[in-house]
Amino acid sequence: MTDTPATTASDSRPDGYAAARLRLLHQGALTGPPRRAALARLTDQWLAALLGEAHGVALVAVGGYGRGELSPRSDLDVMLLHDGSADASKIAAIADRVWYPVWDMGLALDHSVRTPAEARKTAAGDLKVHLGLLDARHLGGDERLTAALRATAYADWRAQAPLRLPELRELGEDRARRQGELRFLLEPDLKEARGGLRDATALRAVAASWLADAPREGLERARGLLLDTRDALHLVTGRATDRLALQEQDQIATALGLSGADALLREVYEAARTVSYAADVTWREVGRVLRARSGRPRLRRILGGRGGRGGFVEPERVPLAEGVVEQDGEAVLARTARPERDPVLPLRAAAAAAQAGLPLSPHAARRLAATAGPLPVPWPAEAREALVTLLGAGEPAVAVWEALDAEGLVSRLLPEWEHVRSRPQRNPVHRWTVDRHLVETAVRAAALARGVGRPDLLLVAALLHDIGKGRPGDHSTAGEALTREAAARIGFGPADTEVLATLVRHHLLLVETATRRDLDDPATVRAVTDAVAHPGTLELLHALTEADALATGPAAWSAWRASLVADLARRAAAALADGAAPDRPAPGPPSAEDARVVAEALRTGGPAVRLRSRPEGTAPDDEAVPVGVELTIAVPEQPGVLPATAGLLALHRLTVRAAELRAVDGALLMNWRVATEFGSLPEPAQLRNDLVRVLDGSLDAVARLAEREAAYSDRRRGITHAPPRVTVATGGSRDATVLEVRAQDAPGLLHRIGRALEAAGVWVRSAHVSTLGSNAVDAFYVTTGEGVPLTSGAAASVALEVEQVLGG
């Protein structure tokens, strides 16, 4: 391709180059990559002409200039390479011939004069120099010198990669600590912040090592967008700056053909998100490769792993959920997974990954995005549970959510999400974009889940509370309407949808009222109770208020604000308490089928078991617990029935979603709703036989579960959850003491609770058990051996004992 007159320097004179450069930058039709490439070619011609004929000498562009990516105010990174045959004065004269015209032009010049050996030695001691040499490009002189330099730089880079890549990663982490994350900053540094141009260059260096490669989908476009923005920034400001200052964002947006500063930031944030995600995936892969190369993991696998054909040792694959396994520190799809036939798999895989504290493999996320079918509307109960489980995982949910979002799965599941995705918040109190703020609020809400009776509603409200931002009008009002649509699609019934809509509509009510109104004025409390008419909803609103503020930033929450909000919530709860209905009515008589199971247990003197599937959609509209497989078990009353049965279910990897337990005519009748962690359901006869063995002690469920729990804990070490909470519910029943247990769901949890209650010497007369995502919310009606409620002191002691067992 022949250069046009506008982009050609006719000679080596500075004024000729300056005029051509000016025309190219301000009068030409070129923009973006073509303009950067044309500017690089123009500069190449000028510098080559300055060098002139030279033997044993080469002029080499390195770094960004070496890549041919010159922004209007970019430094010129140039090396004068010589073979050492000429004396120093001659080399100095050649250097002056090139450097001084550049300085006279007022251009920033990063220059060096080296022999190949000196360049190699400098690169060995300076990582940044070595990175620059990977982009070395010949400008003029002896081309063989440049080719040899490039070959040596790449050979050394690949040979030294196990040592240099960790150093490169540490440089990036240090930049991130100093500069922050580009996609959350109102005035980001396009080059140095995390997700910026430095990180994109680092990914190129990783690929050059041949150890790992970055996900390429969208990466080059993201990098180009950041470069285009920097070009516009240089032209608008007339300075060599990478900081996207607020006062210049509108002009830069106009230069790029965007509607305004917010549109500019969204584009920049999206690009930075792509680079950051690619960096996360790439560095994870680098770590895995380097660990494998160390030899020790391989030795462990050879000695204790599974051998395959030809001595190949397969990496261990640990089941996490149906269709999901752990492999090499990631959650991946099982070989038997069929996303095209399993629309719940994306959410199930995400929930399993987050609960295990693992990243979701990018290959798995990509396959799910490409092949998983759409969820039916409304969602099946399993999908709703998986969403709540994902959100309830706390901090590990962030990376998993990012993996789903990177592949477009979040917007497919929640179309409302696209409008808030990467949306900036110009209030300096906010530290996140709208979408990340919503996820961070869910993380904070997960830590508060033990304080509410419906943690599932708290988590979903946290995810949706600002979903109306960016829409016309008040975002709380817009969010209420969007939440009604989303909640119905997710599968919440009318009553729960109304609670969610109320929480979103009034998520600012408590903090604004508490900080702006007189709490002693009855009208202040009435403003709250008029908007939130149920104690349970008020409890949720209080927790959502705290989670929202904590996720906003340090300036949004303080001990003073917390005390004011708590005082207002307490006063409003007292006002609502007078007319509050009992939380849970007494259970009615058993059904005819349940009565037959009880009769069989009493007739045989042993367990009676019935297992059946309950079709989707047969639960009441406002029922919080999921439908699924129903398991009915009746056992003649005897000590240890509850922990034995719960232990049996855990041994068979049956997850308890809900349960109702009660004493009927001398037997304990237990109605369970269960789901398999993975695999198929056991046969009823097998369950009965194993329960007999657990009850008579021939099957040691305690030991078996302890082994499994130890393995479970090993795989999830370092993951923290909100501590369990066991309280005595006042006024819950006239005939028994009600203990409420709120804890993180885990294999064998109900078994541990049952053993703790048995060790405390109390009888469980009935129970209401529910698992809401990853949170267990259970109520146990207990009495003394004589069948009377516990004294207040004894009840408090039992609650403390159970809490200590679960916390240990």
UniProtKB/TrEMBL annotation:
GO molecular function, one term: [protein-PII] uridylyltransferase activity
Description of activity control: Uridylyltransferase (UTase) activity is inhibited by glutamine, while glutamine activates uridylyl-removing (UR) activity.
Keywords: Hydrolase, Magnesium, Multifunctional enzyme, Nucleotidyltransferase, Repeat, Transferase
Listed EC numbers: 2.7.7.59, 3.1.4.-
Essential cofactor(s): Mg(2+)
Reactions the enzyme catalyzes: [protein-PII]-L-tyrosine + UTP = [protein-PII]-uridylyl-L-tyrosine + diphosphate; [protein-PII]-uridylyl-L-tyrosine + H2O = [protein-PII]-L-tyrosine + UMP + H(+)
Family annotation (Pfam families): GlnD_UR_UTase, HD
Sequence segments annotated as region (Uridylyltransferase): 1-319
InterPro entries xref list: ACT-like_dom_sf, ACT_dom, HD/PDEase_dom, HD_domain, NT_sf, PII_UdlTrfase/GS_AdlTrfase, UTase/UR
Record-annotated HD domain positions: 434-557
Signal peptide positions on this chain: none
Domain of life according to the entry: Bacteria
Domain ACT, residue spans: 630-708, 738-808
Entry's Gene Ontology BP terms: regulation of nitrogen utilization
Its biological purpose: Modifies, by uridylylation and deuridylylation, the PII regulatory proteins (GlnB and homologs), in response to the nitrogen status of the cell that GlnD senses through the glutamine level. Under low glutamine levels, catalyzes the conversion of the PII proteins and UTP to PII-UMP and PPi, while under higher glutamine levels, GlnD hydrolyzes PII-UMP to PII and UMP (deuridylylation). Thus, controls uridylylation state and activity of the PII proteins, and plays an important role in the regulation of nitrogen metabolism.
Family membership: Belongs to the GlnD family.
Domain comment as written in the entry: Has four distinct domains: an N-terminal nucleotidyltransferase (NT) domain responsible for UTase activity, a central HD domain that encodes UR activity, and two C-terminal ACT domains that seem to have a role in glutamine sensing.
Protein known as: Bifunctional uridylyltransferase/uridylyl-removing enzyme
